[in-house]
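hey so i finally got around to running the thing on that chain from the lab meeting. sorry it took forever, my laptop kept dying and i had to restart like 3 times. anyway pasting the input first so we r on the same page abt which one it is
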Amino acid sequence: MTPDRPPLAPNRSKTGSPLTWALGFALILSSIALSGCGRSDSPSGAQAPPGPAGSAEDAFFSFSNTGRNFYERGEADRAVTNFQQAARLQPGNADARINLANALLLGNRSQEAIAEAEAALAADPHQAAALYILGCAHLRLGKAEPAVKALQSAKDIDRTINEVSFQLGRAHQMLGNHEAAIAEFEEVIRFGPQHPAAHYALSQSLLRANRKEDADKALAEHQKIHAGRPPQITDPALFERSKHTQARVPFRQAPPD
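ok and heres what got predicted. didnt touch it at all, straight out
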C-alpha cells in the first residue's frame, strides 16, 4: 500500500567497506552535532553591494534575486550580504528574513540564523520554514531542547517533509530520548527507504535502547544502501536540505490595466 505522503529522493552519501562506512557515518553525525560551535562570527571584509537604481521595491527585488543566485551557488557570504540589504528594505517581510536565515545557516553562522528565524516568526508565527531553520541552527549549536520544540512545531504545521522528521529524530537522540528518536527515524525510512543516514541513525538509537538485533538489521540495511561506494564525509547541510531551505522568490503584483 502506497503511503499517503510521497517519498522523497534524498541525496546519497557514499561509503565503502563495513568498517569504513561505519566510521565514516559516525564522523558525519559527530560533525553535524558539533558544527557551528566554533564559527559564528561574520566573515571579514564582506561589504554591502551598491544599491540598484529605481524604487525601494525595485531594490528589494534586485537584492533578493541576486542573493538567491549566490545562495543557490553555495556562496553563503555573498548571499548573506544581499539578503541583508533586502531585509533592511522590508524588515517585516517574513520571506526576506527566512532567506537571510538560510544563508546564515549555510555559512555556519548559527546564532545569527536563530535571530533571523525568530524575526521571521515574529512577522508570521506559522512559518514552518522559519521553525525548521531555528531547529537546525539549535542542533548545530548542540542545543537539543529548543531544537526539539522548534522542529516539532514545524512538523505540526507540515508533516509531509522527511527532513523535518530526520532532524527531529536527531534532536531526540541528542537528548537521549531514544524511543522518540526511533519513531522519527522509522517514519523517515517508511517514506524514504533509501535515505542516506536514517538507517544508521536508527541503528544507534536501537542499540542504546537495548534492541541489538534490530540495531544490527538497521546497520545491515545501511551497509546495503552504501555498498561499493567510497566514503564521503560531508557537512550538515546535506541532511538539512529540504523544501524549507529553498530560497524564496519575492512576488511582484502586476500593476492594474
